[in-house]
Design a protein that fits this description.
The structure is a single chain. The chain is of the alpha/beta class and about 425 residues long. Among the domains are: about 5-135, 3-Layer(aba) Sandwich (Rossmann fold); about 215-250 and about 310-414, Rossmann fold (3-Layer(aba) Sandwich), CATH 3.40.50. Helix content is about 55%, strand content about 10%. It has a 4-stranded parallel sheet with strand order 2-1-3-4, sandwiched between helices. Strands 6-5-7-8 form a 4-stranded parallel sheet, with helices on both faces. β1 (about 15-20), α1 (about 25-35) and β2 form a beta-alpha-beta unit. α5 runs antiparallel to α6 and α12 (about 310-315) crosses α13 (about 330-340). The radius of gyration is 21 Å and the shape is globular. The N and C termini lie far apart (about 70 Å).
């Protein structure tokens, strides 16, 4: 019998959270702390994390699960925490993939170490864990949504500024300042003034001194953890910038919309969710309107490239993959690749855990079909695995970058 996290533990338990979204978690941590939770986001990155993961999770299991569990075990063994007053928290999408077993795998790893008394929380909306102890009331949900939207906006702007910054580190310094200032608005309800907040973000980011040197844009897609987590993808964004490229990443709220859209697809295809279909539709419309506020602000200013409308992403993938393909990242991954290519980002890296059947099908498996329609597309599927050589991964990326530079020179000559 596992230990449950109860509401009275909020006062004296520190909740450890695995890293995934570096900017977004700067918002999420204080948002949840405002509701009485004590949070620490683990930003550790060392070889011992992978070793602990391999020691507690079979190497054929999902690589993100191995990393998350390895990061938890590494933290608990570090001596930094009072193990009688610590809890672990993960998010779960609840799809038909091995990630839905994170919770049982983590509890099994804790039991093996003799730590079965440490409670584990699951934040999910699919009924995987009905008594996790996380009290998600409406105000907390709304603050979390706005935190995700502002994290998406800052991530989108960062990737158009940091590769060009004259004074290294200035972009992240400005982002940290804006996050600190924005958290005050989360205290007084001012976080809903999104138009003003987005204009301020854009003004602050475009004020950073930048070079005029053009850089090739490279899209990053993939399994959600591998796509965003520096621990998972070997700091891919930083590596691309270091090599003189501009990374392009869609926001995490697009994945939320993908999950909502799948509810609508279930209703259309299988007549499921008949009672909640209307709620799915309202949620989709609300989130897309909230995203539009940022997109309109970017277009009105004219300094930066605006993200694609999610409805355009949906349409981009329809000729290539059926919406009923929704295991893992499903139709979203293919749609994002096609949407990137249509918007001029013809160089794309697909980050996938080795052995993840759903993502191999919708990523590597769809590459040939996409290149038939877009012969100039330069797509590099990269497998991430504890046994995969970092040198081999880097060489694959370098080959993609070399092709990108060659294609750019040929376009200039034409």
């Amino acid at each position: 019998m596992y230990t449950k996290f109860t509401s009275d533990m909020k006062a004296d338990h520190l909740i450890l959270v695995p890293s995934m979204l570096p900017i977004h978690f700067k918002f999420f941590k204080p948002i949840f702390e405002k509701n009485g939770y004590h949070i620490e986001v683990l930003d550790t990155d060392n070889d011992n994390i992978r070793e602990e993961g391999l020691a507690h999770v079979h190497n054929d299991m999902c690589y993100p699960a191995l990393l998350v569990i390895g990061q938890f075990i590494d933290a608990l063994k570090s001596g930094k925490y009072d193990l009688d007053h610590v809890a672990l928290a993960i998010t779960q999408t609840g799809g038909g993939c091995r990630a839905s077993n994170y919770l049982s795998l983590l509890r099994k790893a804790l039991e093996r170490e003799g730590w079965d008394y440490i409670p584990v929380l699951s934040l999910n909306f699919s009924g995987l864990e009905k008594d996790s102890g996380v009290e998600m009331d409406l105000p907390l949900i709304m603050r979390t949504i706005y935190g995700a939207l502002y994290g998406d906006a800052l991530m989108w702007l960062k990737n158009q500024v940091m590769p060009y910054e004259v004074h290294k580190g200035e972009t992240m310094r400005v982002i940290d300042e804006m996050v600190d200032e924005l958290m005050v608005s989360f205290e007084n309800g001012g976080y809903r003034k999104s138009k003003k907040i987005y204009r301020d973000m854009i003004d602050r980011m475009k004020a950073i001194e930048r070079t005029k040197e053009p850089k090739i844009r490279v899209g990053i897609v993939g399994e959600i953890y591998m796509k965003y987590s520096p621990l998972g993808n070997q700091h891919l964004e930083d590596y691309l910038m270091q090599e003189g490229f501009e990374p392009v990443l869609s926001g995490v709220m697009d994945f939320v919309l993908y999950s909502i859209e799948n509810g609508l697809i279930d209703y259309k295809y299988y007549h499921m969710h008949s009672k909640s279909w209307g709620i799915y539709q309202i949620a989709k419309d609300v989130v897309m309107r909230m995203q539009k506020t940022f997109r309109d602000a970017v277009k009105q200013d004219g300094t930066f490239v605006a993200p694609d409308d999610f409805s355009e992403v949906i349409r981009a993938g329809r000729p290539f993959i059926d919406p009923g393909v929704k295991m893992g990242e499903g139709w979203l991954l293919t749609s994002e690749v096609v949407s990137l290519i249509q918007s001029g980002v013809t160089n794309v890296i697909m980050c996938q855990p080795f052995g993840c059947l759903p993502n191999h099908i919708v990523a590597k498996g769809m590459t040939h079909k996409i290149k038939q329609e877009y012969p100039n597309a330069n797509i590099a599927p990269i497998d991430f695995d504890p046994s995969a050589s970092h040198v081999n991964q880097e060489n694959r990326i370098r080959l993609m970058m070399a092709n990108a530079k060659l294609n750019a020179r040929m376009q200039e000559q034409n």
